[in-house]
Amino acid sequence: METTRTTFAKFNQQLQILFFAMLVGLIGISGILYFFVQPIPFTGDPMFFYIGGAVLVATTAVSLVLGKKFMADAREKTSVEEKLLHFRQGQIVRMALRDGAVLINLMLYFFVSGHPDLLYFAGIGFVLFALLMPSRERIIRELDLGSDDVARLDSEEILINMPSARR
Questions:
Q1: DSSP for residue 62
Q2: Between 102 and 158, whose confidence is greater?
């Protein structure tokens, strides 16, 4: 597998691009559903309300647990480069789980139940997803990087080997 070397600034930029691409995708899908799809009329059956809430709670809980595991594993790595790659993996998993909860609640509302609270769950999911926005400060805080490591990040001395998309 080919690898590409990148600086911390580009690494952070790539994470932010991924985050905003997923966020724009969620907003786009929500807009398309809202403006072009007539939701199923609500029948009063609360079953899907419970499913939607359970999905949101479960994916958030799994996201938190896996996030803590990934961050604990990342902190144990010896080099900053390895810590950053592990952080990236954990961030992608967390974002995907929270993204999925929003999509499931939207699908349940528009195509299965029509229960209006499912839209509230989707909105809460949006907020929980937005809390994962990557930033330099967040990376430093979650990885507990020391002042020497932070100085290396700022000096662009770090070159991270990342898998290349080229084939």
A1: H
A2: 102
